[in-house]
Design a protein that fits this description.
Blueprint: H1 3-23, H2 26-29, E1 33-43, E2 46-51, H3 53-62, E3 69-78, E4 81-91, E5 94-105, E6 108-118
Parallel strand pairs: 1-6
Antiparallel strand pairs: 1-2, 3-4, 4-5, 5-6
Length: 120
């Protein structure tokens, strides 16, 4: 694949995550993630860390974020690995910076880890 095709494939993967945030359904974002994916970040003073299912559960409880605005701030690709930085405003009144580590697994890009910052 060309670098443009790889970029587009990565953006399609991340779009599942964005769509799931907007719908409020963890199942909608699940296709973006590898089953063994993890999440790390702070919610106030508390570390939110562990299997990615924690994100899906939070998203289901949080509900739809139909007014969420998302910008892909950066995509960096090196053969079979990539990073993506998202800036997210108004995820049900929250502002996040998300950084994803992706791996190309069996020809498909999957998020392996999400690290986030919840802005005050």
């Amino acid at each position: 694949m060309s670098s443009v095709q790889e970029y587009d494939a990565i953006v399609r993967t991340v779009q599942h995550y964005i769509d799931g945030g907007r719908s409020g359904k963890g199942a909608d974002m699940k296709p973006a993630f590898h089953p063994g994916a993890t999440i790390f970040g702070y919610v106030g003073p508390d570390l939110f860390a562990g299997p990615i299912q924690g994100l899906f559960d939070w998203n289901d409880q949080n509900g739809p974020a139909t007014q969420m605005q998302v910008r892909i701030a950066k995509v960096d690709i090196a053969e079979t690995v990539a990073t993506v930085r998202l800036e997210i405003d108004n995820w049900t009144s929250h502002r996040f910076t998300d950084i994803f580590a992706l791996l190309k697994v069996d020809g498909e890009w999957k998020i392996m880890c999400k690290v986030f910052h919840l802005h005050g």
